[in-house]
Design a protein that fits this description.
The chain has 78 residues and is mainly α. The protein has one domain (3-19, 26-73): ACP-like (Non-ribosomal Peptide Synthetase Peptidyl Carrier Protein, Chain A), CATH 1.10.1200. Helix content is 55%, strand content 0%. The chain has 4 helices and no strands. It is globular.
C-alpha cells in the first residue's frame, strides 16, 4: 500500500469515516470525532505507522487532512 493510502486509512479508522467521505474537505473540529482527544490519537497513529516523532509545532498546526499530508512529507513520508 502506498503511503497516501496508509494516511487515508488512518484518518478513516481514527474518525470512523467511510470510503465516500471526501478527506480533502476534512478539517480539525469539522466532525465531532476530531476533537482534542481524537487529534492526539490521530497523531499517535501517524507517528506509529511511519516511525516518526512530530515536533510540537507540527502537531498543533495539523489542522486538516491536506496539512497532514504536507506535514508528513517534512518527515520523509511521500
Amino acid at each position: 500500500m502506498s503511503n497516501i493510502g496508509k494516511i487515508e486509512n488512518i484518518f478513516r479508522q481514527e474518525f470512523n469515516l467511510d470510503e465516500k467521505f471526501d478527506l480533502k474537505t476534512l478539517t480539525y473540529q469539522s466532525i465531532p470525532e476530531w476533537d482534542s482527544v481524537g487529534h492526539m490519537s490521530l497523531v499517535a497513529s501517524l507517528e506509529d505507522e511511519f516511525n516518526i516523532e512530530m515536533e510540537m509545532d507540527d502537531i498543533i498546526d495539523l489542522s486538516s487532512y491536506e496539512v497532514a499530508v504536507k506535514t508528513l512529507v517534512k518527515y520523509g513520508v511521500e
